[in-house]
Amino acid sequence: MNPSEQLLIVFAKAPLRGEVKTRLGKEIGFEQSAAIHKDLVEDTLRRTISNKWQTQLWCTPTIEHVFFQYLATRFSIERHLQSGADLGERMLNAIEYGLRHFKRVVLIGTDCPLIEQELIDEAFQQLKNGCDVIITPAEDGGYVLIGAKKIEESVFSNIEWGTAAVLSATESRLAASDLNWKKTKTLWDIDELVDWQRYQGMVNGFGL
User: Fold this and answer.
1) Per-residue tens of pLDDT for the chain, all 208 residues
2) Which end of the chain is more exposed for a tag (fewer CB within 10 A), N or C?
3) What are the beta bridge partners of residue 106?
4) Within-domain flag for 207
């Protein structure tokens, strides 16, 4: 597939103490959870950047944070500023921007350590083969990847972001739309202490 036709958008927050990984921070301290967040963001870029697609880092609340400057230099990627009243609007704006310049767009966050190039490649392939929207569900009721070759605003409207109802609400919006959509296998992400312990077990060779 032509990398000039495909865009991977990585959504990331600046590692501000007390504003990232807050559920984990309540268990282990906000300083440590912010450090974990930084590691997850950097590791996500390391795992997912490929010559099969363009990659952009979409930042909040600013693109000028020193961490984002470091990532832009290390990985030679563009930075863009997220914009919108809530997560849904920010994702919609980013995807619509991407589709003005690329045929296919995949958007991910940085909380899922299981997102690899193979999954992203599969998502792009599904979009190339006729699917309008592709979603990778999360075990907690959200999703960790959404890809599109065309999109409707309704997919992101009136959803309680950060709850276990995100996936079901999104599926309802998609079912009511004219979009052809599919799901991939379900993955898990890191939000709470049990998730972090699961990840530690994975990286230390104890399985999932």
Assistant:
1) 677 899 999 999 999 999 999 999 999 999 999 999 999 999 999 999 999 999 999 999 999 999 999 999 999 999 999 999 999 999 999 999 999 999 999 999 999 999 999 999 999 999 999 999 999 999 999 999 999 999 999 999 999 999 999 999 999 999 999 999 999 999 999 999 999 999 998 877 654 4
2) C
3) 8, 147
4) no
> What's the whole-model pTM score?
0.95
208: in domain? no
Say whether 63 sits in a helix, a strand or coil.
coil
Which residues span the domain enclosing 100? Answer: 3-202
Considering the domain boundaries, does residue 112 fall inside one? yes
* 92 half-sphere exposure, CB direction, 13 A CA radius: 16
CA dist list (Å): 88 to 3, 20, 139, 165: 26, 18, 19, 14
* CB neighbour list of residue 142: distance below 8 Å, 6 or more residues apart: 162, 163, 164, 166, 167, 189
Number of domains in the chain: 1
